[in-house]
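Hypothesis: this fold can be encoded by more than one sequence.
Test: take the structure tokens below, design a sequence, compare later.
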């Protein structure tokens, strides 16, 4: 796992991940493991995160002790299952939003097959319309939607992110050219401390709200 600090960013995620020995990674329940394998095998469009990134998301959720998580861009539920496995340990819940109706149905079926229906709620539709209707605040947000909308999603969600909460975004290395405004926000926002890590080379930004 590589840690990237393009501008002396706060290395919270790097320190957490580097400190976690590989042998301490908790096992994935067999049912969930079979579902995760099946999703990856069918993922011809490469919409799902890598297994390394999925494990990192689970680690972040557990290390944060997250209780109220939001995922924007759920695809077929691969990352939602990884996040859900972490929330199973913390007693939290996840709402994952997927724009495409067919993928949302797949995500719901996959979450159910993984035994996480009591932890993960799948919402089909436009996240810009759905998020304002969700109650409460969030302490963990994972963004993996249309890359050019990252800044808009950040502006929508950040006011509802708890102080001390994590805002996590995917593809910030391999698709950096598509989200320049968002990356500039991570560098310059006075209430963020951010790091970029690369468990698989695609890049995951982890930002702590101060």
């Amino acid at each position: 796992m590589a840690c990237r600090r393009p501008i002396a960013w706060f290395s919270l995620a790097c320190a957490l991940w580097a400190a976690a020995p590989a042998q301490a990674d908790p096992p994935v329940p067999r049912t969930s493991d079979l579902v995760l394998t099946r999703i990856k095998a069918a993922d011809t469009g490469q919409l799902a995160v890598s297994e390394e990134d999925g494990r990192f998301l689970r680690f972040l959720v557990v290390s944060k002790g997250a209780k109220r998580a939001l995922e924007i861009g759920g695809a077929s539920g691969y990352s939602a299952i990884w996040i859900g496995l972490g929330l199973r340990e913390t007693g939290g819940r996840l709402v994952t939003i997927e724009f495409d109706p067919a993928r949302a149905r797949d995500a719901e079926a996959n979450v159910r097959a993984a035994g996480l229906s009591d932890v993960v709620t799948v919402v089909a539709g436009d996240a810009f319309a759905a998020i304002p209707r969700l109650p409460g605040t969030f302490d963990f947000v994972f963004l993996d939607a249309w890359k050019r909308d990252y800044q808009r999603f950040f502006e929508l969600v950040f006011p509802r992110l708890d102080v001390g909460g994590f805002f996590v975004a995917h593809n910030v290395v391999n698709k950096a050219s598509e989200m320049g405004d968002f990356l500039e926000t991570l560098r310059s926002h006075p209430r963020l401390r951010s790091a970029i890590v690369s468990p698989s080379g695609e890049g995951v930004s982890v930002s702590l709200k101060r």
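Strands lie at 2-4, 68-72, 93-98, 120-124, 138-143, 161-170, 192-198, 204-209. The chain has one domain: 2-16+59-209.
Hypothesis status: open.
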